[in-house]
Structure formats: C-alpha cells, structure tokens
Amino acid sequence: DAGVIQSPRHEVTEMGQEVTLRCKPISGHDYLFWYRQTMMRGLELLIYFNNNVPIDDSGMPEDRFSAKMPNASFSTLKIQPSEPRDSAVYFCASSFLLAGRTDTQYFGPGTRLTVL
Amino acid sequence: AQSVTQPDIHITVSEGASLELRCNYSYGATPYLFWYVQSPGQGLQLLLKYFSGDTLVQGIKGFEAEFKRSQSSFNLRKPSVHWSDAAEYFCAVGSNFGNEKLTFGTGTRLTIIP
User: Fold this and answer.
1) CA gap B77, B64 in Å, rounded
2) What is the pLDDT at residue A100?
3) Å from B82 to nearest chain A CA?
4) A102 → closest Cβ in B41, B100, B105
5) pLDDT, tens digit (0-9, with 9 covering 90-100), for A47-56
6) What are phi and psi of A16, to 5 degrees?
7) Short-list B59, B53, B113, CA closest to B91
8) Which of A54, A79, B79, B105 could form a disulfide with B4 if both were Cys (CB 3.0 to 4.6 A apart)?
9) DSSP letters along B71-103, please?
10) What would the pLDDT profile of B69-94 be if each residue is shown by its tens digit?
11) Longest dimension (CA), chain B
C-alpha cells in the first residue's frame, strides 16, 4: 500500500484566500484524522471521522475550518478565509479497527501551509 | 483526561552512545502507549506500541520501551544510536476505550554528534 497520501505537500497563499488540503487514507482503514502541528502548540487533533462520519470536531479552531469525507478514500480540510496564524503543517492519519478498537494511526507526509 | 509529559525538549548524544528518552503519562486506567518518530519534513512513523502483556516492548530500528505502571512512565531506549536516529520523538497515550483520540507529548528533539 502507498500509505496515507496528502496533497499538496506545500501550499503558499495570501491571507483571505481559500485553502483546500486533501487526503487519501490507507485502503480499508475505518478512521481518518486531521492534525495540525505548530512550534507553539505542538500536534493538535482537529477532527476525526469514522466510516466517513465526523465523530469529534472539537479541535477545529474556528468556523473558518471545515472538513469533509465524501467517501472512504478521500477527505478534505478547508480553510476559508485563511489567515497568517493558520500557517502550520497539517497531517492526515488513518487507522483501523482491531479486536473492536482502533489500532495504530498511520500518518501522511503532511502539507506545509504558509499564509502570507 | 489523559496527558503526556516529555520533560526533555532537546537531547544531544554521541554516535554509538546509549539513549533514553523519557515519557510520563497521566491516565486513570491502563493506557495504550506509543512512540512515534518524525524526521525533518516527514510525517510521524510508529516506532513501537504497548497495549498489554510484556512491559518491555521491542520496536523498529533497534528501539525498545518499558512500561512502568508504578512510575507512570514509558521511556524509550536504544543501546547504540546512529546518526540517522537524529529526529523528533513523540510519546502518545490512548484510552482503553479506543485510540481515537491520541494525546501527544510535546516531543524530544534528538541531535547526534560524531
């Protein structure tokens, strides 16, 4: 398997623009997670899905952030409008059920977002 | 709520020397514990995990970790480090109701000197 795939790897945009980050989880995984990593706050869980359904979005910082998972092989994280403080590395991770509980989370390579 | 503390922000070790990275957790029941490694510009890769059973866990790249309930610790060790081990290391804890929400430590940056 190719692992978790994220695109783009780097994104530079201007404040106020819409940004869409994309993720393809590992085939067969039931769970998908979006994280944000910054120097100041470390690794933060933004939202996660189970079988394409959002389960917990309590980590989403503001209404400017939204995430969707239209099918088992694709998810997007959208920021509209973007702000400089959104600059970070955004990771997608996926996981699967093992003996009735989720197992290891496998991370993608991340998208480095810079908002000017 | 669960939490993880990695008390060492940055550690420098000579190549060939032994390594121990500290991790302390807070959780009311038996935790599920993980160590991940992140190389520059890369995502997180799982080194090892503890769910139950033997408290000494072997992982990839020659790493091991020992779960000590009495000390609420899950320290990562390697007997002899290689220059390629330079990276950031994250400890994480999940609940025994499922690992949906992993709580990560702040990470320890490892520098290897010749």
Assistant:
1) 5
2) 63
3) 23
4) B100
5) 999 999 999 9
6) 95, -15
7) B59
8) B105
9) GTEEEEEESS--GGG-EEEEEEEEEBTEEEEEE
10) 999 999 999 999 999 999 999 999 98
11) 44
Distance CA A97, CA A51 (A): 11
Point out the residue among A48, A106, A107 whose CB comes nearest to the CB of B100.
Answer: A48
In whole angstroms, give the CA distance from residue A32 to residue A39. Answer: 23
d(CA B5, CA B71): 13
Question: Is the Cβ pair A56, B101 closer than 8 Å?
Answer: yes
Which residue type does A21 have? Answer: L
Residue type, B88: E
Q: Return mean pLDDT, chain B.
A: 92
- Compute CA distances B80 → B11, B62, B64, whole Å: 15, 9, 12
Distance CA(A45)–CA(A27), nearest Å, equals 21
The structure tokens listed for A32 are: 């998908």
Write down the pLDDT at residue A20.
98
The full length of chain A comes to: 116
Terminal-residue alpha carbon distance, chain B: 41
